[in-house]
Amino acid sequence: MSKTKKFSVGLVQMHCDADPEANREKIVARIREAAKLGAQIVCTQELFTSHYFCQREDSALFDLAEPIPGPSTKVLSQIAKECGVVIVGSLFERRAAGLYHNTAVVHDADGSLLGMYRKMHIPDDPLYYEKYYFTPGDIGFRAFETKFAKLGVLVCWDQWYPEGARLTALQGADVLFYPTAIGWHPSEKAQYGAAQADAWRTMQRAHAISNGVYVCAVNRVGHEGATEVAGKKEGGLEFWGGSFVSDPFGVVLKEGSRTDEEILVVECDPAHQESVRRNWPFLRDRRIDAYGGITQRYLDGTGSAGGSGSR
Protein backbone atom coordinates (compact mmCIF):
# COMPACT_ATOMS: atom_id res chain seq x y z
CA MET A 1 0.00 0.00 0.00
CA SER A 2 1.21 3.43 -0.90
CA LYS A 3 0.31 5.39 2.24
CA THR A 4 0.23 4.74 5.98
CA LYS A 5 -1.62 7.83 7.20
CA LYS A 6 -5.38 7.98 7.52
CA PHE A 7 -7.20 9.96 4.85
CA SER A 8 -10.75 11.27 4.50
CA VAL A 9 -13.00 10.96 1.47
CA GLY A 10 -15.88 13.26 0.57
CA LEU A 11 -18.82 12.16 -1.59
CA VAL A 12 -21.00 14.84 -3.18
CA GLN A 13 -24.56 13.62 -3.80
CA MET A 14 -26.68 16.28 -5.47
CA HIS A 15 -29.46 17.24 -7.85
CA CYS A 16 -28.31 18.46 -11.24
CA ASP A 17 -29.58 21.41 -13.25
CA ALA A 18 -29.91 21.50 -17.04
CA ASP A 19 -27.33 24.32 -17.17
CA PRO A 20 -23.66 23.21 -17.07
CA GLU A 21 -22.45 26.52 -15.66
CA ALA A 22 -24.94 26.33 -12.79
CA ASN A 23 -23.77 22.80 -12.01
CA ARG A 24 -20.13 23.84 -12.06
CA GLU A 25 -20.88 26.64 -9.59
CA LYS A 26 -22.79 24.21 -7.41
CA ILE A 27 -20.03 21.59 -7.35
CA VAL A 28 -17.47 24.25 -6.38
CA ALA A 29 -19.63 25.20 -3.40
CA ARG A 30 -20.08 21.55 -2.42
CA ILE A 31 -16.34 20.84 -2.68
CA ARG A 32 -15.59 23.82 -0.45
CA GLU A 33 -18.12 22.50 2.05
CA ALA A 34 -16.66 18.99 1.92
CA ALA A 35 -13.17 20.38 2.49
CA LYS A 36 -14.38 22.34 5.53
CA LEU A 37 -15.82 19.09 6.88
CA GLY A 38 -12.39 17.49 6.61
CA ALA A 39 -12.51 15.73 3.25
CA GLN A 40 -9.13 15.34 1.55
CA ILE A 41 -10.34 13.46 -1.56
CA VAL A 42 -13.67 14.60 -3.02
CA CYS A 43 -15.62 12.75 -5.71
CA THR A 44 -18.52 13.99 -7.83
CA GLN A 45 -21.37 11.88 -9.16
CA GLU A 46 -21.35 10.75 -12.78
CA LEU A 47 -21.74 13.47 -15.44
CA PHE A 48 -22.34 16.18 -12.85
CA THR A 49 -22.40 19.08 -15.33
CA SER A 50 -25.86 18.27 -16.71
CA HIS A 51 -29.01 16.25 -16.38
CA TYR A 52 -28.49 12.58 -17.23
CA PHE A 53 -29.01 13.11 -20.96
CA CYS A 54 -28.73 9.46 -22.09
CA GLN A 55 -32.44 8.89 -21.55
CA ARG A 56 -32.93 9.59 -25.28
CA GLU A 57 -30.89 9.53 -28.47
CA ASP A 58 -30.52 13.10 -29.69
CA SER A 59 -27.51 14.27 -31.69
CA ALA A 60 -27.93 17.82 -30.36
CA LEU A 61 -26.95 16.57 -26.91
CA PHE A 62 -23.39 15.99 -28.07
CA ASP A 63 -23.07 19.75 -27.61
CA LEU A 64 -22.86 19.06 -23.86
CA ALA A 65 -19.46 17.42 -24.33
CA GLU A 66 -16.26 19.33 -23.66
CA PRO A 67 -12.56 18.83 -24.28
CA ILE A 68 -10.11 17.76 -21.59
CA PRO A 69 -8.54 20.10 -20.55
CA GLY A 70 -11.60 22.31 -20.86
CA PRO A 71 -14.07 24.47 -18.89
CA SER A 72 -14.81 21.91 -16.19
CA THR A 73 -11.23 20.79 -15.63
CA LYS A 74 -10.24 24.45 -15.27
CA VAL A 75 -12.83 24.90 -12.52
CA LEU A 76 -11.91 21.64 -10.79
CA SER A 77 -8.21 22.48 -10.92
CA GLN A 78 -8.80 25.87 -9.34
CA ILE A 79 -10.95 24.57 -6.49
CA ALA A 80 -8.59 21.63 -5.85
CA LYS A 81 -5.68 24.05 -5.42
CA GLU A 82 -7.74 26.52 -3.38
CA CYS A 83 -8.92 23.87 -0.90
CA GLY A 84 -5.86 21.62 -1.03
CA VAL A 85 -7.97 18.58 -1.89
CA VAL A 86 -7.81 15.81 -4.47
CA ILE A 87 -10.82 15.84 -6.81
CA VAL A 88 -12.34 13.07 -8.90
CA GLY A 89 -14.71 14.61 -11.45
CA SER A 90 -16.93 12.82 -13.98
CA LEU A 91 -17.30 14.52 -17.38
CA PHE A 92 -18.67 14.07 -20.90
CA GLU A 93 -15.47 14.25 -22.95
CA ARG A 94 -15.27 15.47 -26.55
CA ARG A 95 -12.09 13.85 -27.82
CA ALA A 96 -12.69 14.71 -31.49
CA ALA A 97 -15.60 15.23 -33.84
CA GLY A 98 -17.70 12.07 -33.59
CA LEU A 99 -15.56 10.64 -30.77
CA TYR A 100 -16.84 11.04 -27.22
CA HIS A 101 -16.17 9.35 -23.89
CA ASN A 102 -17.62 9.15 -20.40
CA THR A 103 -14.47 10.22 -18.57
CA ALA A 104 -13.34 10.74 -14.99
CA VAL A 105 -10.51 13.18 -14.31
CA VAL A 106 -8.27 13.22 -11.24
CA HIS A 107 -6.78 16.47 -9.95
CA ASP A 108 -4.19 16.38 -7.19
CA ALA A 109 -4.29 18.73 -4.21
CA ASP A 110 -2.07 21.26 -6.00
CA GLY A 111 -4.56 21.51 -8.87
CA SER A 112 -2.52 19.48 -11.34
CA LEU A 113 -4.34 17.07 -13.64
CA LEU A 114 -2.90 13.65 -12.78
CA GLY A 115 -4.78 11.86 -15.52
CA MET A 116 -8.11 10.41 -16.52
CA TYR A 117 -10.06 7.20 -16.79
CA ARG A 118 -12.46 6.51 -19.65
CA LYS A 119 -15.47 4.36 -18.80
CA MET A 120 -14.85 0.87 -20.12
CA HIS A 121 -18.26 -0.81 -19.86
CA ILE A 122 -21.00 1.04 -21.74
CA PRO A 123 -24.67 0.06 -21.17
CA ASP A 124 -27.55 0.13 -23.61
CA ASP A 125 -30.83 -0.25 -21.74
CA PRO A 126 -34.16 1.60 -21.74
CA LEU A 127 -33.42 5.21 -20.71
CA TYR A 128 -29.71 4.39 -20.47
CA TYR A 129 -28.78 4.72 -24.13
CA GLU A 130 -25.10 5.26 -23.48
CA LYS A 131 -23.77 3.34 -26.49
CA TYR A 132 -25.20 6.12 -28.67
CA TYR A 133 -23.02 8.71 -26.92
CA PHE A 134 -19.90 7.04 -25.54
CA THR A 135 -17.00 5.21 -27.14
CA PRO A 136 -15.69 2.51 -24.76
CA GLY A 137 -12.55 3.48 -22.87
CA ASP A 138 -9.21 2.70 -24.51
CA ILE A 139 -6.68 3.55 -21.79
CA GLY A 140 -7.46 0.63 -19.50
CA PHE A 141 -7.93 0.47 -15.76
CA ARG A 142 -5.77 2.88 -13.81
CA ALA A 143 -4.69 3.86 -10.31
CA PHE A 144 -3.46 7.35 -9.44
CA GLU A 145 -0.91 8.27 -6.78
CA THR A 146 -2.26 11.40 -5.07
CA LYS A 147 -1.11 13.44 -2.11
CA PHE A 148 -3.31 11.52 0.31
CA ALA A 149 -3.81 8.01 -1.12
CA LYS A 150 -3.51 5.89 -4.22
CA LEU A 151 -6.96 5.78 -5.77
CA GLY A 152 -8.70 4.04 -8.61
CA VAL A 153 -11.69 5.32 -10.55
CA LEU A 154 -14.35 3.35 -12.39
CA VAL A 155 -17.67 4.70 -13.61
CA CYS A 156 -21.25 3.50 -12.99
CA TRP A 157 -21.84 0.44 -15.23
CA ASP A 158 -18.24 -0.59 -14.47
CA GLN A 159 -19.41 -1.27 -10.92
CA TRP A 160 -21.07 -4.54 -11.95
CA TYR A 161 -17.83 -6.07 -13.24
CA PRO A 162 -15.41 -7.68 -10.76
CA GLU A 163 -12.64 -7.69 -13.36
CA GLY A 164 -12.36 -3.89 -13.43
CA ALA A 165 -12.22 -3.62 -9.65
CA ARG A 166 -9.61 -6.37 -9.45
CA LEU A 167 -7.33 -4.95 -12.13
CA THR A 168 -7.48 -1.52 -10.52
CA ALA A 169 -6.81 -2.88 -7.04
CA LEU A 170 -3.86 -4.89 -8.35
CA GLN A 171 -2.23 -1.59 -9.31
CA GLY A 172 -2.10 -0.67 -5.64
CA ALA A 173 -5.27 1.39 -5.22
CA ASP A 174 -6.21 1.91 -1.57
CA VAL A 175 -9.70 3.10 -2.48
CA LEU A 176 -11.99 2.71 -5.50
CA PHE A 177 -14.35 5.52 -6.51
CA TYR A 178 -17.47 4.88 -8.59
CA PRO A 179 -19.10 8.10 -9.89
CA THR A 180 -22.64 6.94 -10.64
CA ALA A 181 -25.98 7.89 -12.19
CA ILE A 182 -28.37 5.04 -11.43
CA GLY A 183 -32.05 5.10 -10.65
CA TRP A 184 -35.44 3.48 -10.89
CA HIS A 185 -37.91 3.43 -13.71
CA PRO A 186 -40.82 4.77 -11.63
CA SER A 187 -43.24 2.20 -13.06
CA GLU A 188 -40.98 -0.62 -11.81
CA LYS A 189 -40.00 0.83 -8.45
CA ALA A 190 -42.73 -0.80 -6.35
CA GLN A 191 -42.02 -4.29 -7.68
CA TYR A 192 -38.26 -4.27 -8.24
CA GLY A 193 -36.88 -1.13 -6.61
CA ALA A 194 -35.69 -2.50 -3.29
CA ALA A 195 -34.00 -5.52 -4.90
CA GLN A 196 -32.31 -3.39 -7.57
CA ALA A 197 -30.84 -0.96 -5.05
CA ASP A 198 -29.75 -3.81 -2.78
CA ALA A 199 -28.01 -5.60 -5.66
CA TRP A 200 -26.16 -2.38 -6.53
CA ARG A 201 -25.01 -1.92 -2.95
CA THR A 202 -24.09 -5.58 -2.50
CA MET A 203 -22.03 -5.73 -5.68
CA GLN A 204 -19.79 -2.88 -4.62
CA ARG A 205 -19.41 -4.17 -1.08
CA ALA A 206 -18.21 -7.39 -2.72
CA HIS A 207 -15.51 -5.43 -4.59
CA ALA A 208 -14.36 -4.01 -1.26
CA ILE A 209 -14.21 -7.45 0.38
CA SER A 210 -12.62 -9.44 -2.45
CA ASN A 211 -9.93 -6.81 -3.05
CA GLY A 212 -9.39 -5.54 0.49
CA VAL A 213 -9.99 -1.89 -0.44
CA TYR A 214 -12.27 0.96 0.52
CA VAL A 215 -15.06 1.54 -2.00
CA CYS A 216 -16.92 4.82 -2.52
CA ALA A 217 -20.09 4.91 -4.64
CA VAL A 218 -21.30 8.43 -5.48
CA ASN A 219 -24.82 8.64 -6.93
CA ARG A 220 -27.13 11.51 -7.84
CA VAL A 221 -30.66 12.22 -6.58
CA GLY A 222 -33.72 13.68 -8.27
CA HIS A 223 -36.37 12.72 -10.81
CA GLU A 224 -35.11 13.63 -14.31
CA GLY A 225 -36.79 13.31 -17.70
CA ALA A 226 -40.28 13.06 -16.25
CA THR A 227 -43.43 14.63 -17.69
CA GLU A 228 -46.21 16.22 -15.63
CA VAL A 229 -49.53 14.38 -15.87
CA ALA A 230 -52.37 15.62 -13.69
CA GLY A 231 -49.88 17.20 -11.32
CA LYS A 232 -47.77 14.04 -10.99
CA LYS A 233 -44.41 13.17 -12.49
CA GLU A 234 -44.46 10.21 -14.84
CA GLY A 235 -41.70 8.46 -16.74
CA GLY A 236 -38.05 9.44 -16.67
CA LEU A 237 -35.64 8.14 -14.06
CA GLU A 238 -35.80 8.56 -10.32
CA PHE A 239 -32.18 8.52 -9.19
CA TRP A 240 -31.93 6.63 -5.93
CA GLY A 241 -29.00 8.36 -4.23
CA GLY A 242 -27.77 6.10 -1.47
CA SER A 243 -24.12 7.10 -1.93
CA PHE A 244 -21.98 5.13 0.50
CA VAL A 245 -18.51 4.18 1.66
CA SER A 246 -17.61 0.56 2.40
CA ASP A 247 -14.51 -0.50 4.29
CA PRO A 248 -12.31 -3.44 3.15
CA PHE A 249 -14.39 -5.82 5.28
CA GLY A 250 -17.59 -4.79 3.48
CA VAL A 251 -18.92 -2.72 6.37
CA VAL A 252 -20.88 0.32 5.18
CA LEU A 253 -19.36 3.19 7.14
CA LYS A 254 -21.78 5.88 5.98
CA GLU A 255 -24.70 5.97 3.56
CA GLY A 256 -26.64 8.81 1.99
CA SER A 257 -30.34 9.53 1.64
CA ARG A 258 -32.42 8.14 -1.23
CA THR A 259 -33.87 11.59 -1.99
CA ASP A 260 -31.80 14.41 -0.51
CA GLU A 261 -28.60 16.18 -1.40
CA GLU A 262 -25.79 15.29 0.98
CA ILE A 263 -22.07 15.42 1.52
CA LEU A 264 -20.64 12.30 3.13
CA VAL A 265 -17.21 12.57 4.75
CA VAL A 266 -15.59 9.34 5.93
CA GLU A 267 -12.15 8.58 7.36
CA CYS A 268 -10.25 5.68 5.79
CA ASP A 269 -7.42 3.91 7.60
CA PRO A 270 -4.70 2.05 5.66
CA ALA A 271 -3.83 0.18 8.87
CA HIS A 272 -7.33 -1.32 8.87
CA GLN A 273 -6.87 -2.29 5.23
CA GLU A 274 -3.59 -3.99 6.14
CA SER A 275 -5.26 -5.92 8.96
CA VAL A 276 -8.15 -7.11 6.78
CA ARG A 277 -5.81 -8.29 4.05
CA ARG A 278 -3.64 -10.18 6.52
CA ASN A 279 -6.65 -12.06 7.86
CA TRP A 280 -8.44 -12.50 4.52
CA PRO A 281 -5.47 -13.03 2.16
CA PHE A 282 -7.45 -13.26 -1.06
CA LEU A 283 -4.63 -11.74 -3.09
CA ARG A 284 -2.23 -14.38 -1.77
CA ASP A 285 -4.50 -17.30 -2.66
CA ARG A 286 -5.43 -16.25 -6.17
CA ARG A 287 -4.73 -18.97 -8.76
CA ILE A 288 -3.23 -16.76 -11.42
CA ASP A 289 -2.08 -19.86 -13.29
CA ALA A 290 -5.68 -20.97 -13.83
CA TYR A 291 -7.49 -17.84 -14.98
CA GLY A 292 -6.67 -17.82 -18.69
CA GLY A 293 -10.29 -18.42 -19.63
CA ILE A 294 -11.34 -15.07 -18.17
CA THR A 295 -10.27 -13.40 -21.42
CA GLN A 296 -12.78 -15.46 -23.43
CA ARG A 297 -16.34 -14.33 -24.10
CA TYR A 298 -17.76 -17.68 -23.00
CA LEU A 299 -16.50 -21.18 -22.26
CA ASP A 300 -18.13 -24.50 -23.22
CA GLY A 301 -18.36 -27.46 -20.86
CA THR A 302 -14.81 -28.61 -21.54
CA GLY A 303 -13.31 -25.39 -20.27
CA SER A 304 -12.24 -24.23 -23.74
CA ALA A 305 -13.43 -21.21 -25.65
CA GLY A 306 -15.41 -23.39 -28.05
CA GLY A 307 -15.97 -22.88 -31.76
CA SER A 308 -13.24 -22.90 -34.36
CA GLY A 309 -10.94 -20.46 -32.62
CA SER A 310 -10.25 -18.68 -29.36
CA ARG A 311 -12.07 -15.46 -30.09
**Main sheet summary:** 6 strands, mixed
* Computed CA radius of gyration, to the nearest angstrom: 19 Å
Q: Could you state the order of secondary-structure elements as H and E?
A: EHEHEEEEEHEEHEEEEEEEEH
On the 0 to 100 scale, the average pLDDT is 95
Q: What's the end-to-end separation, in Å?
A: 36 Å
**CATH H-level superfamily:** Carbon-nitrogen hydrolase
Low-pLDDT ranges: 307-311
Which architecture does the CATH hierarchy give at level 2? Answer: 4-Layer Sandwich
- Backbone shape: globular
The percent range for strand residues is 25-35%
CATH secondary-structure class: Alpha Beta
| Overall domain count | 1
Characterise the protein shown here:
By secondary structure, the chain is of the alpha+beta class. It has one domain (7-295): 4-Layer Sandwich (Nitrilase/N-carbamoyl-D-aminoacid amidohydrolase), CATH 3.60.110. 24% of the residues lie in helices and 27% in strands. It has five helices and 17 strands. It has helices spanning 20-36, 71-83, 162-169, 186-211, 270-279; strands at 7-13, 41-43, 86-96, 99-107, 113-118, 143-145, 150-153, 175-179, 183-184, 214-218, 221-224, 227-229, 232-234, 237-240, 244-246, 252-255, 262-268. It has a six-stranded mixed beta sheet. The protein starts with 6 loop residues before the first strand and ends in a 32-residue tail after the last helix. The relative contact order is 0.15.
